[in-house]
Amino acid sequence: MNILFATPECAPYVKTGGLGDVSGALPAALASLGHDVRVLLPAYKGMKVHGEIGDGVDLPAFGPWPAAQLLPVRVESGVTMLLLACPSLYQRAGGPYVDASGHDYEDNVLRFGLLSRVAALLGTHATPMAGWQADVVHANDWPCALAPLYLAQARADVPWHRTAASVITIHNMAFQGVFPMHSADLLGIPGRWRGIDGVEFWGQLSMLKAGLQLADAITTVSPTYAREIQTPDFGAGLDGVLRARADRLTGILNGIDTQVWSPAHDTLLLHPYSAGDFAGKARNKAALQKQLGLAADPKAMLFGVVSRLTSQKGIDLVLQHLDALLAGGGQLAVLGLGDPALQQALGEAARRLPRQVHVTVGFNEQLAHRIEAGADCFLMPSRFEPCGLNQMYSQAYGTPPLVSATGGLADSVTDATDDTAGGTGFVMRESGAPGFADALARAKQAWADPATWRRIQSNGMARSFGWEGSAGRYVDVYRHAQAAAHQGPR
Ligand code: ADP
Ligand code: GLC
């Protein structure tokens, strides 16, 4: 099958969160199942992609939009990257979505309108890649979410030509790509899809809603989140749309890239280790304590956090329970970036208690790996979590996670109090402060008994979180999407 995987970020080239990791690993897993996978990604400033670069392909002009090119690069994993080169839109200081001062780029509607449009074009008979047309266009999150609409439009305009099936994956309902309705002209949204059954969302234009309305199949990144987003508490205003399309919605748990996230092969660690060699983990802990200026105490229970600092991630609960975390010599190592108020509150704690708390504000891949390896227990008390990857990395690294019972956290961590033989972490029994306090007390109790702790660590390390199973489930969804596409417009 020819699969076009469209994404605004892809590790290791450009990453702000879990979507980057997924985009780096899932296409390679699909390619290893024998599919021809091409990843469409904007060519951002400073991005280095190593591989054999093919000839640039000019894209047709879309009205007044700036001219753009596709640069094909065949990379080691067997995937072809299609870099969408449009210097005036993508060659900028700052991240993929925000400028250097953290504000959304004013022309995001065009930047990601173009990404969606090119994704769709690659699934039509007018594909610019000579001889290659996608059978399935897999669009990820709001920045690609207009692709299903453009494909539906192509299918209606030229029904005698074959047009790819469309799949949209929701990585986070909190980000929807909402713009003023007048953008519909610029984007070329046909009149019939400007209303409530199309892109309209409280008088504005929602890119995500377009994708949810018009994709042949919808997936999200865990089975529990697939259920949650059909309720008002988690649906971010689109739960009604999702309920109406529930027969097209599937939850597929993300995998992890076991080449990158395995303690035995992790090139970013000072001391690689495995389930058969916990001494290596102790050495990583000592090195981390030293690096961060924490007391060099092997017996101190070291809690780790690597996270975007937003209300989603429940970091306020960590702050609220600081005394309980640090009681008896506990330590906390945080790596994160985001909400200035959270950064400041964490920074104050670190200044007050430098031997027990360390906070690194920034994005640091190496430190993220070293915290996963050096911490004893990983904290992830998210308010909602579509999938979450760090709780899986933590289990693979023998660092039992403390998590809330939501989304992919609920689907990937087994509570060690409930399941004393097979538990891999600590799952909050209720949300909010009481749930966190109770789970923390249970984690500390387990830590006090080294044999119990070792069993929980080993259980997590024995789990397989690779992409093999989930990649196969995506292929099933692609086939269902193709069948649905053939049945004509919905
Ligand atoms: P989300 O995508 O919601 O941020 P995930 O758990 O799915 O959450 O993925 C987050 C990814 O980003 C993980 O690979 C994590 O290690 C990484 N990450 C988050 N914050 C940082 C940071 N400050 N520095 C380095 N890596 C980070
Ligand atoms: C989003 C979610 C996270 C998920 C990631 C990759 O950023 O917040 O839970 O793991 O996407 O799917």
- Name the overall outline: globular
Ions, cofactors and other ligands present here are:
adenosine-5'-diphosphate, alpha-D-glucopyranose
Distance between the amino and carboxyl termini: 24 Å
User: In terms of per-residue confidence, which ranges show pLDDT below 50 for 5 or more consecutive residues?
Assistant: none
- Proportion of beta-strand residues: 15-25%
Domains (count): 2
Task: Describe the protein in words.
The chain is of the alpha/beta class and 490 residues long. It has 2 domains: 272 residues, Rossmann fold (3-Layer(aba) Sandwich), CATH 3.40.50; 184 residues, Glycogen Phosphorylase B (Rossmann fold). The protein is 36% helix and 17% strand. The protein is built from 18 helices and 19 strands. Strands 1, 2, 3, 4, 5, 6, 7, 8, 12 and 13 form a 10-stranded mixed beta sheet that branches. A 6-stranded parallel beta sheet has the order 16-15-14-17-18-19, with helices on both faces. A hairpin with a 2-residue loop joins strand 10 and strand 11. Helix 3 packs across helix 4. The protein is globular, with a radius of gyration of 23 Å. 50% of the residues are buried. Bound molecules: adenosine-5'-diphosphate (ADP) and alpha-D-glucopyranose.
